[in-house]
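User: Could you go from structure to sequence for me? I need the amino acid at each position, not a summary. Structure tokens:
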């Protein structure tokens, strides 16, 4: 049995109830097989794969808070500190009722390789809670965030672990978390990223994941001789990643015809009006169905199925496993040319394999959405320097990082004889740096 298969079987036996984590590990190990085979003896001796699949530490804690009716509520908080071989743990916090250990381990594992691809010195981590911010008052969100940080602050720090936002954690939540960290420790330091501009945040961080997604999409299309301008796109979700992906797509002359949220999707054949989406989602925190009520000609459809809207470019930017085989088949039948993942693991393994086999250009999340964490890395640099770079400077650095990621991913795929397989390329390129650092640092 190969080393990668052996490790996967051990991981399955030890974690039978963690499907998302197993899915992420399997995808990475499968595409690393070509690299591992060449160095099997050395890696086996060092127990490299046994160590790389196991988080360095998982912290799980109670988060008690009082709601607006005066009732005590208790949520479960987590921080998964996955791998610190190339830098302090870095990765977002997710607040969503679906959050559990499996989802955070999958996200943390992916984060290790993603952070490595950025070229910046950041290890991988992830955290969050099953708290649902939807429908909560600002005071309730603050009470939760303060209680969450009252435990988390013991384990984080600017050189130890630097959390950021993710689903359900935007500027408001980062503000509450930062305020409580500062109050508990007395330290004014870059312990969180995604901060507001008045207290250490970086310009372009809000837009970075969406912009970065389009920068790498454009590199991939350019390399294949395909023009982005004039293409029709569908972008799923209507949160942070989706909104700024749409903004950048439109600036390149592409037409976005559909977006969604967790209750349904809207199709606007004339092109999505982003100012209206932003008003509904960023200002009113409302439902996407309101778009159809406000824009003549737009149609709202309840439920899933956004993939039925014909497009050239499909960007899943909502959540894990949102696009399955059925949807992938419809996309191909309608002539999709490229899929790039703004979300983490939004495409199931079956759907990914099908799209690749059908010749669709496919860029996986760990490369495609790395612009967010890369710009978080730039925020950390600015905090350490006690300087703020201009919008143009940060955007230029982000753009260069995404160009560089595309080059690394494409090159790694070519080096291992799988040119054009960006899933393999991203896993291999991300792994190489982490593996080298782990080998150099001994058995830790
Ligand atoms: P947000 O919370 O800002 O937005 C998430 C969006 O996805 C919302 O519109 C939400 O709808 C929608 N959504 C959630 N679940 C579903 C579902 N089951 N079906 C359809 N739509 C759904 O999160 P982000 O934009 O920050 O994150 C989106 C993805 O991108 C996540 O996978 C995240 O891990 C990843 N990511 C984010 C980064 C960042 O910088 N923010 C960086 C790298 C990756 P509703 O409004 O109804 O909840």
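Assistant: Here is the amino acid at each position, in order:
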């Amino acid at each position: 049995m190969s080393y990668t298969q052996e490790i996967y079987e051990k991981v399955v036996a030890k974690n039978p109830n963690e499907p998302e984590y197993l899915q992420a590990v399997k995808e990475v190990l499968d595409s690393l097989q070509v690299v591992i085979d060449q160095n099997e003896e050395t890696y086996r001796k060092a127990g490299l794969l046994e160590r790389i699949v196991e988080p360095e530490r998982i912290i799980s804690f109670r988060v008690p808070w009082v709601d607006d009716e005066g009732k005590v509520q208790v949520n479960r908080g987590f921080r998964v500190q996955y791998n610190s071989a190339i830098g302090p743990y870095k990765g977002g916090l997710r607040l969503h009722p679906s959050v559990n250990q499996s989802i955070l381990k999958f996200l943390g594992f992916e984060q290790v390789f993603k952070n490595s691809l950025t070229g910046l010195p950041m290890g991988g981590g992830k955290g969050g809670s099953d708290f649902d911010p939807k429908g909560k008052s600002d005071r309730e969100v603050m009470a939760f965030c303060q209680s969450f940080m009252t435990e988390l602050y013991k384990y984080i720090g600017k050189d130890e672990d630097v959390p950021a936002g993710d689903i359900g954690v935007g500027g408001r939540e980062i503000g509450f978390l930062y305020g409580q960290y500062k109050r508990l420790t007395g330290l004014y330091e870059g312990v969180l990223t995604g901060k507001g501009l008045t207290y250490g945040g970086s310009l372009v961080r809000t837009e970075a994941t969406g912009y970065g997604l389009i920068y790498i999409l454009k590199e991939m299309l350019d390399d294949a001789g395909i023009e982005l301008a004039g293409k029709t796109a569908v972008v799923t979700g209507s949160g942070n990643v989706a909104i700024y992906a749409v903004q950048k797509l439109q600036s390149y002359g592409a037409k976005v015809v559909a977006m969604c949220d967790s209750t349904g999707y809207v199709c606007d054949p004339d092109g999505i009006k982003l100012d209206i989406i932003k008003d509904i989602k960023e200002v009113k925190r409302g439902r996407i169905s309101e778009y159809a009520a406000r824009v003549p000609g737009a149609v709202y459809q309840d439920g899933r199925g956004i993939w039925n809207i014909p497009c050239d470019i499909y960007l899943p930017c909502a959540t894990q496993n949102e696009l399955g085989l059925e949807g992938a088949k419809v996309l191909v039948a309608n002539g999709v040319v490229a899929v790039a993942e703004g979300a983490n693991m939004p495409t199931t393994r079956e759907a990914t394999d099908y799209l690749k086999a059908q010749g669709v250009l496919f860029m996986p999340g760990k490369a495609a959405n790395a612009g967010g964490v890369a710009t978080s890395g730039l925020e950390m640099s600015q905090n350490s320097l006690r300087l703020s770079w201009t919008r143009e400077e940060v955007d230029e650095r982000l753009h260069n990082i995404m160009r560089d990621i595309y080059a690394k991913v494409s090159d790694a795929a070519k080096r291992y004889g799988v040119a054009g397989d960006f899933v393999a390329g991203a896993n291999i390129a991300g792994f190489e740096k982490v593996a080298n650092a782990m080998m150099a640092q001994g058995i830790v």
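One structural detail worth keeping in mind: The chain has a mean pLDDT of 98.
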